[in-house]
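ok new one. same drill as before - structure tokens go in, u give me an amino acid for every spot. 213 of them this time. try not to just spam alanines like last time pls lmao
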């Protein structure tokens, strides 16, 4: 009886090997990367929150979905301290509108969309009066870099115009701060509220020191 010759496995051709690696690479890429989307969202509900992350139910592209965001970023966006009952204060204003960048189901960047959505301070002192009482400390405490951020954001939100921004920007740091707070304060409560809110976004520590939040 002739011995049975062992069947040797067929070797993969170079073409088959390259094709397999390409397919695996494509599959891995699709599963590990998440699409980045930017647009307007409405925060409808807080599902769960702790000091690290907050899970939200939002409406985005006409569809409701659950997303999460770092609690610090969410608090800074709406000018609220993390320990200052964020859930209660934010929930009382819902639905809240914001501009957000989402990667998968994570919000990586979020911007509040103006004074109508800002979380108000829990007292009856008009915003322009608040600015008046903190004017000296603001001028002493705000940095030049943060002043430039304030100017850009206030221009985007139509609180100041191009001419006002250029006039303020050319001055020294202290004069720039003095001119900015006075220009906005003279525009009334809405503009003053937005300056306070924007300062909370740009410099939370100074906002806390000025007791604006």
């Amino acid at each position: 009886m002739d011995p049975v010759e062992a069947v040797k496995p067929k070797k993969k051709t170079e073409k088959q090997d390259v094709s397999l690696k390409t397919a695996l690479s494509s599959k891995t890429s699709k599963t590990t990367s998440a699409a980045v989307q930017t647009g307007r969202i409405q925060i409808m509900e807080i599902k769960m929150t702790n000091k690290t992350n907050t899970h939200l139910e939002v409406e985005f592209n006409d569809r409701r979905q659950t997303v999460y965001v770092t609690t610090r970023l969410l608090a800074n966006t709406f000018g609220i301290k993390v320990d200052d009952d964020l859930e209660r204060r934010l929930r009382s204003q819902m639905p809240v509108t914001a501009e957000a960048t989402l990667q998968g189901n994570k919000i990586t960047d979020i911007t509040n969309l103006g004074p109508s959505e800002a979380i108000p301070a829990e007292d009856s002192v008009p915003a322009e009066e608040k600015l008046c009482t903190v004017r000296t400390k603001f001028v002493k405490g705000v940095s030049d870099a943060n002043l430039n951020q304030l100017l850009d954001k206030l221009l985007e939100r139509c609180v100041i115009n191009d001419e006002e921004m250029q006039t303020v920007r050319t001055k020294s740091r202290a004069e720039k701060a003095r001119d900015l707070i006075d220009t906005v304060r003279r525009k009334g409560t809405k503009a003053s509220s937005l300056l306070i809110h924007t300062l909370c976004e740009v410099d939370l520590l100074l906002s806390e020191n000025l007791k604006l939040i």
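Residues 127-209 form a domain with the Death Domain, Fas fold (CATH 1.10.533.10). and btw The longest strand covers residues 36-49.
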